Amino acid sequence: MGLDAVLTPSRKPTTEDYRVEAPIAASGLHVEFWDRMDRLPLAAAEPDLMEPMALANTLLFKKALSIQMDKNICCLQPMRLSAGPGAHSAAGWMTSPRLSVGLESGSRLDLIVALDRLPQTAGLVNSVMDIALAEQTALNLILIGSTSSNALSLFDISVRQKRDSLLRVFTIETGPGISRMDVSVRLEGVNATAELFGLALLGGERSRSYHHIRVDHRAPHTQSRQVYKSVLAGSAQFEYDSLVTVRKEAVHASSDQLNKNLLLSNAARAYARPQLAINTDEVQCHHGATVGQMS
Q: Which of 9, 37, 41, 195 is the most exposed place for a label (fewest CB within 10 A)?
């Protein structure tokens, strides 16, 4: 996916990025908007490791949303966010949502990010999320993809996890548009766990979904699990590209990668590339992928 297909001169930046649709009134939960990168509580990912579109978000975002939780805070209801412009935006719109999530030790949050209300006009959502999980925290992140046939959705998610933290990411895509998701997870603390799940139900001529996953095991006894499935009709395409790296110091780490794809037409395509880079012997790592058609 080239930059020339994304950053065209006809794009019209809009300042309407994230909107909090289900605010939570809870002590210890801080929801704020910032207009400068250096004011965000969390630092962005290293610039040399960021994808080009994530760097573009850093340059173009107008208003960043920061969600920070104090120690030992648990929200009993999920927080829901929506991204993108209003329903009547003209064709060629572009928005750059920026989200910073930080959980201090012992806290838990359920977060829903929805793109299912994007306008049907052609446009671009270029979203970046920076997430930091302290010790003994839990974050459930649900991403609902766009249903607009003309919208292009880009997500760049960077996660850093400390000891005994738990991350679960659920991605649901049912729309006919084009989307790409780049997820980078660093398991930096002992017994940190990341579980990534994806489901894509796609059809039509322009349906494209790209998932690029990077999981870096940097501490002992860390665990990661990935399960991505797709059902493709028409000329839909689904790509799963995952690399799990186990460093020398990450002894007794475990990792599973599974991708299953069902093709309902001869024109549908699925591409699976699960990969492992293991630098120590004391690990349990498995990966597998299947692509099949209806008999």
A: 9
Say if pTM beats, i.e. exceeds, 0.85.
yes
- Please give the full DSSP string across 3-50, using - where no structure is assigned: GGGTS-TT-EE-S--EEESS----TTEEEEEESSGGGSSSPPPPGGGS
Which among 92, 221, 97 has a CA at the least distance from the CA of 154? 97
| Element (DSSP H or E) covering residue 54 | helix 52-60
d(CA 181, CA 229): 15
Is the Cβ–Cβ distance between 208 and 175 less than 8 Å? no
How far is the C-alpha of 248 from the C-alpha of 68, rounded, in Å?
33
Extended beta strands in the chain, E state: 12-13, 18-20, 29-34, 64-69, 79-83, 93-95, 98-103, 108-114, 123-133, 138-144, 151-161, 166-173, 178-187, 193-202, 208-217, 223-232, 237-246, 253-263, 269-278, 283-293
Please say whether the beta carbons of 289 and 241 come within 8 A.
no
Q: Is the pLDDT of residue 176 over 90?
A: no
Distances (CA, A) of 17 to 60, 147, 220, 267: 11, 18, 39, 36
The tens digit of pLDDT for each residue in 134-155 reads 999 999 999 998 888 888 889 9
pLDDT at residue 184 in the model: 94
The pLDDT tens digits of the residues spanning 101-125 come to 999 999 999 999 988 888 878 888 8
| 125 close to 95: Cβ distance less than 8 angstroms | yes
- Pairing assessment for the beta strands 18-20 and 79-83 based on DSSP bridges: antiparallel
From the list 242, 185, 194, the residue with the least C-alpha distance to 222 is 194
